[in-house]
Design goal:
The chain has 341 residues and is mainly β. The protein has three helices and 18 strands. Helices cover 12% and strands 53% of the residues. Strands 1-3-4-6-7-8-9-10-11-12-13-14-15-16-17-18 form a 16-stranded antiparallel barrel. A hairpin with a 4-residue loop joins strand 12 and strand 13. The two termini are 44 Å apart.
Length: 341
Amino acid sequence: MRSPQRAAACCLVALFLASTSYAYAADGVEIYGLIGSYAGSIKRSDSVARTAVVGSGGLTTSWWGVRGSEDLGGGMKAVFQLEQFFQPDTGGAGRSAADPTGFSRSGWVGLSGAYGQLTFGRHTSPYYVSMQMVNPFGSSVVFSPLVVQSYVASFSNTVIGDTVWNNVIQYVAPTVGGLSTTVVYAPGEVAGNNKVYNAGLHFRYVNGALTAVFSAQRDRTAAVAPSTSQDAYLAGVAYNAGWAKLYASAQHTDNNITNVTSRTWQLGTSVPVTATGSILASWARTTVDNPAVHTGAHNTGGLGYDHYLSKRTDIYATYLYDHIDGRVKGNSYAVGIRHLF
């Protein structure tokens, strides 16, 4: 007896779902992300004891996001992006407890069109993006020698500031002849002090087998701490020779008030050994000039094998050597998995 009512209800639900799907499709909204985890044994040059871990991220920090756009006509679009880091090993939000509980990876809105893209909010640092393009271990804050020496405190990082910047105005110019330009400015939001701000200028050239980057950034946000006043410069290249992809980079940092400077050199390669697997290798060496304290050279080397099971899933094994002059040598190894969704 209820079949007509049920049929009518089903039709209403179907119409609602269809209209909802159409609205999302028309606005270009999508949910996406990456989940990764690894298991291994970690021993850095600054630590005596070895630690067995099941860690989050690995080759890439885990995150999920929502992004979308609306066509405003005349070639102009409104665009937005909301992304959050998370820890699959514990279920925690962010990379650590220090991250905001909301959208810790990015949160911005803006306009995009023929003259480029202008956005406002929390952005991934373009300096960090450039660094990913010129080393075989990409963005890894666990296994990339270049990244850990630059950004990870437990590896005596040389670059001040996070891989994500707050309160950013970012302009990305249209790509011309393979050259893209990104400009960022982030006011320090300190009352009565207009000299406290972060800024950056970033160039990336991609043409066929060649990739080249140059990034310069100024970090002044936490002006009350002298060590947080820094200029940093990164130049690097990557070349796909077919039989291997070759990487090289050079970085210089200058902590203006304390007169502490650093130089980091990195060489790396990615060699395909099967149709779906590659050997990754990278070596980074940092020297620091500190007028107050003698600091020895810091050498970090990474070796790994990355094997893709599909376009969205890969497994890997890695080894990381770490040594700061005058300290114990560190050796870490791990196996892990990543999945894009």
